[in-house]
Amino acid sequence: MHIDYSLLSTEIALAILGLIVFTLGLTLPSRSTNRGLGAFAIFGLLIVLGITVSFWGTQAELLAGMYLIDNFSVFFKILALVAAILIVFGTMSYANNNLSRQLEYYSTIIFATLGMIIMISAGDFITLYIGLELMTVSFIILVAFRKTDGHSLEAGIKYLILAGVSSAVLLYGLSLIYGATGTVYILELAELVTAGTISPLLVFGLVLLVAGFGFKISAAPFHMWAPDVYEGAPTPITAYLAVGSKAASFAILVRVFVGGLAGMQEQWATLLAVLAAISILLGNLVAIPQTNIKRMLAYSSIAQAGYIMVGLLTASPEGIKGVMFYAFIYLFATIGAFVVVCAVYEKTKSDEIASYAGLSQRSPLAAAVMLISLLSMAGIPPLAGFVGKFYLFTTITDNFMWLVYIGLIMSMVSVYYYLRVALVMYRDEPTDPTPIKMGAAVNVTLIIAMVATLVLGIYPTPLSELSNIAAQSFFTW
């Protein structure tokens, strides 16, 4: 069988980059490693991003459908790589000052990204599971990276146990679907489910898939790991969990449910609608009393997972476009917020919301970026989050109007706890008036996040068109 290895250029380049970063970390002096390894990783990731962009417009499959290359997968790969670049670039100072063993840190982030990219292009259950486990194992290492910090180790153990359970549930669900249909290929599964009868075994496998994927996207009631892990993990890893892991998981969720199980839409659409409603309600309501900024953002991410899930319900190009658009703008808002969290922690050694008192005086740029990021997550116009929620909820007005009402009401509720942070930043007097000095890399990352959130809210057309093209390519197989 002829294999066109050029179609795997992104994956091969990422694997080589991860190995080179790890090798350089072992061979270079520690001082040089700390200063240059992050910059080298960013340079390599930029090259991989350029390779990935060159595949836009390509539609091909490898190994009889085990691996799929299309605009849909390229879009999500670009998202994962952009997230990795911005997080590494914006938090290099935090990593140098708070994390040891830079070679393991940067190389493991690269391998986590590789797992996401393999998962995004997976065309069968085996490839899907390999990519998923590579991503998950990498994140287990990263979550517990601060080995002398009890909170980090506790978060790592919790993530290890719950990730293992969710992977077992997901694998069992995939095996049941294979037993009911006789295929592990997603494209073949779509034909068999559409043409055949829906058996109880297939329905049970579907339920287990929802549970397994629910953990990966931190949707309620499978969210129990998120608050503790978000709080205990190093902040850059928390940010990448909230953006990269969630985006990749949604990509494969779309691929399996909308692509492979479209013939069972009546069965899974209502189930996902209920989970979306629970996630939106629980995430927003439980975020209100939180005093730790990372726990608040954890519950916010649960609500955001509920919003993104809305786009799957119609199994239409418009809904998938909404998922892709929102995932991309959510990237900038989340990274902007977490880079500010990193900067404040370096100065105050605290993640409590109270430590943000007077941030507008100590660092006007950080306060502005945090405010814009939080308001975008709340869906306040003219920020990008408003446009994203508009795209998502307009697709379900015919069949799930009750979910639209829940989304609108909870978006207004979210404004309360987001603005509570803003009040602390702009109203309260700082206990330490010393300015927070941030490096050039942090400032550039914050400006990129802020400008993207503003511009994509005011002029969303380019990203909207790209999302639409990618969504249309998904339905051409």
Brief characterization of the structure:
By secondary structure, the protein is mostly helical. The protein is built from 20 helices and two strands.
Describe this protein with a few key phrases.
mainly alpha, about 475 residues, globular, two-stranded antiparallel ribbon
Your description of this structure?
This protein is mostly helical. The chain has one domain. The protein has helices at 9-27, 30-53, 71-90, 92-98, 102-120, 125-143, 150-181, 186-195, 200-216, 226-232, 235-260, 265-287, 293-309, 317-348, 359-362, 364-378, 384-394, 401-426, 440-458, 461-474; strands spanning 60-62, 67-69. The chain has a two-stranded antiparallel ribbon with strand order 1-2. Helix 10 (226-232) runs antiparallel to helix 11 and helix 12 (265-287) runs parallel beside helix 18 (401-426). The longest helix has 32 residues, at 150-181. The chain is globular and about 70 Å long. The mean pLDDT is 91.
Number of strands: 2
The secondary-structure class comes to mainly alpha
Order of helices and strands: HHEEHHHHHHHHHHHHHHHHHH
Rg over CA atoms, rounded to whole Å, is: 21 Å
Strand content: under 5%
